[in-house]
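Quick one, tokens below:
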């Protein structure tokens, strides 16, 4: 049986002291909870502080991104060995906001080229993480326009297969896939539970076609306006193994209730 996983993506929020206060506010309540795996993904600068606080607890620390080279003249980038050294055990890869695909655009449209993640760079980053024994959480999902055009399954299959291309089945057994419909990220809109289950089942079917064991073992999460009020219903679905939580993970009580919904 796949163990549920709940990951909080803090995005560009929380200074190191604020991150520490948030962790301290929820860790006392969830530290006994052995029915789900818990991951928090703070900004880079808060990672060391958070790692220190969750040591010897059930909470793992993830990063929000990584660069695929181990070192070199790549100003501003952070490598997988650096993350490993900092105590990171999970890392998001291919989040829609890194791809320049926003549910709620909060930057000038003329700056979207700054967010230039591609299927190729996602694939390279997965390799870098696997080499350092950091578990990738691969984010995939469609925009509202793609959904309205009836291309949801096509877009997601393309992203998934491109991300995993070239890797041996055995290398991919412990990765995590997070389905996040772009139109539901930061908008307050949530994919209907039956549709979220359908898409996650489709993702599992693609994994199963690559390798039957892969389809049974890989955890598939749902993300996109996950809240305490909808988490229990979402997590009860056969092919949804937990959630990738954005804004709600910044509120200790809300995140705690989401975690307790996963069992």
């Amino acid at each position: 049986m796949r163990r549920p996983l709940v990951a909080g993506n803090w995005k560009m929020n929380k200074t190191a002291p604020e991150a520490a206060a948030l962790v301290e506010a929820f860790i006392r309540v969830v530290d006994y909870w052995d029915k789900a795996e818990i991951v928090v993904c703070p900004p880079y600068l808060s990672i060391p502080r958070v790692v220190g606080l969750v040591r010897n607890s059930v909470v793992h620390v993830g990063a929000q991104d990584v660069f695929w080279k181990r070192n070199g003249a790549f100003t501003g980038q952070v490598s997988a060995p650096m993350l490993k050294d900092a105590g990171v055990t999970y890392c998001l890869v291919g989040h829609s906001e890194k791809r320049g695909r926003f549910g709620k655009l909060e930057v000038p449209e003329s700056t979207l080229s700054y967010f230039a993640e591609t299927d190729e760079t996602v694939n390279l980053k997965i390799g870098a993480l696997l080499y350092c024994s950091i578990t990738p959480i691969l984010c995939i999902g469609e925009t509202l326009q793609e959904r309205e055009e009836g291309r949801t399954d096509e877009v997601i299959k393309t992203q998934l297969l491109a991300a995993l291309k070239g890797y041996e089945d055995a290398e991919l057994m412990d990765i995590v896939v997070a389905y996040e419909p772009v139109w539901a990220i930061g908008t307050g809109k949530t994919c209907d539970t039956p549709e979220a289950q359908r898409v996650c089942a489709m993702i599992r079917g693609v994994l199963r076609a690559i390798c039957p064991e892969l389809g049974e073992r890989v955890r598939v999460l749902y993300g996109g306006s996950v809240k305490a009020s909808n988490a229990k219903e979402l997590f009860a679905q056969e092919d949804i193994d937990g959630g990738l939580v954005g804004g709600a993970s910044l509120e200790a009580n809300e995140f705690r209730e989401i975690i307790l919904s996963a069992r």
